[in-house]
Write a structure and sequence with these properties.
Shape: elongated
Main location: cytoplasm
Mean pLDDT: 95
EC number: 2.1.1.228
Number of domains: 2
CATH class of the largest domain: Alpha Beta
Number of strands: 9
Function: Specifically methylates guanosine-37 in various tRNAs.
Order of helices and strands: EHEEEHEHEHEHEEHHHH
Subcellular location: Cytoplasm
CATH superfamily of the largest domain: SPOUT methyltransferase, trefoil knot domain
Pfam family, one: tRNA_m1G_MT
Strand order of the largest sheet: 2-1-6-5-7
Distance between the termini: 44 Å
Bound molecules: 6-chloroguanine
Number of helices: 9
């Protein structure tokens, strides 16, 4: 997979060279490039924005600059991702749908956003555009949201996570439940004991305990996820914890 990020603050994307994503890029599992949008400006002031048609506060990013950048960066069949608080919600399911793409281009807007014709033109040319929000709050630009989405997608690439079993039992995985609490050594710490069942070696009991704690936690923190569960996943006995 290839990932390109276009931003007026390319330094904001520096964390992409660290940790798992950075290693994936270094080892060739992932091709990664960050571009400065201003390199596609043609005026002396390197202008990327202008006042909104129709009036109102703030500035809008110009379609001509973005169009030139995307013409150079987007490959045939590439998917354009536009981070915006008015997008569809980015979820684990969306991450799974993106990891199979050949190229993702993240177009990081600032100010009041990017002229809507940029997305429209790409769609008209047969391209895929996904305007994505990472949650119900407002950030100053798409850079941090892009970091979030890129990490969520890159860790799903085969070979990026050392132990693929780590991907199986996690929160927001297949089961539709949050993950159970975890413990390690020492067995007793600060007057607190790790749950005895986890040290018992009784595998079936451990599986049952973890499932019960996952259900309990999800009921407490994310009742909306319980509502959304496939009815065959839980029975009444599971909810009577
Ligand atoms: Cl993707 N961008 C901005 N600017 N704010 C956000 C967001 C994205 N997702 C949530 N808030």
């Amino acid at each position: 997979m290839r990932i390109d990020v276009i931003s007026i603050f390319p330094d904001y994307l520096a964390p992409l060279s660290l940790s798992l994503v950075g290693k994936a890029a270094q080892s060739g599992l992932l091709e990664l490039a960050v571009h400065d949008l201003r390199s596609w400006t043609t005026d002396r002031h390197r202008t990327v924005d202008d006042t909104p048609f129709g009036g109102g506060a703030g500035m809008v990013m110009r379609p001509d600059v973005w169009g030139a950048a995307l013409d150079d960066v987007l490959q045939p069949g590439g998917t354009l991702i536009v981070p915006t608080p008015s997008g569809e919600t980015f979820t684990q399911r969306v991450a799974e749908s993106l990891v199979i793409e050949s190229q993702l281009v993240f177009a990081c807007g600032r100010y009041e956003g990017i002229d809507a014709r940029v997305a429209e033109r790409h769609r008209q040319g047969g391209g895929t555009v996904r305007e994505m929000s990472i949650g119900d709050y407002v950030l100053n630009g798409g850079e941090v949201a892009s970091l979030v989405m890129i990490e969520a997608v890159a860790r799903l690439l085969p070979g990026v996570i050392g132990n693929p079993a780590s991907l199986v039992e996690e929160s927001h995985g297949e089961a539709g439940l949050l993950e159970y609490p975890v413990y390690t050594k020492p067995p007793s710490w600060a007057g607190l004991d790790a749950p005895e069942v986890l040290l018992s070696g009784h595998h079936a009991k451990i599986v049952r305990w973890r499932r019960d704690r996952a259900i309990e936690r999800t009921l407490d923190r994310r009742p909306d996820m319980i509502e959304a569960l496939d009815p065959t996943t839980l029975d009444k006995a599971d909810l009577a914890l």
